[in-house]
Design brief:
alpha+beta; 3 strands
Length: 63
Amino acid sequence: MNSRNVSGVTGVSWDAIANRWSARLTVGGKLVLNKAFATFSDAVAARRAAEASYHVAPRKPRH
């Protein structure tokens, strides 16, 4: 896992100000997903759906 990623899922992070999970995806320099979710699983599902929609392969964790 990247030292800057504590959620374990690329593009999913905790927003302490909003008290919600955030899912983001950038494709070609354009932010195509930027939403907040009440649960971690909803944020992960949204990120995975956006990756599939834009034909972006999920990033694999580095070891």
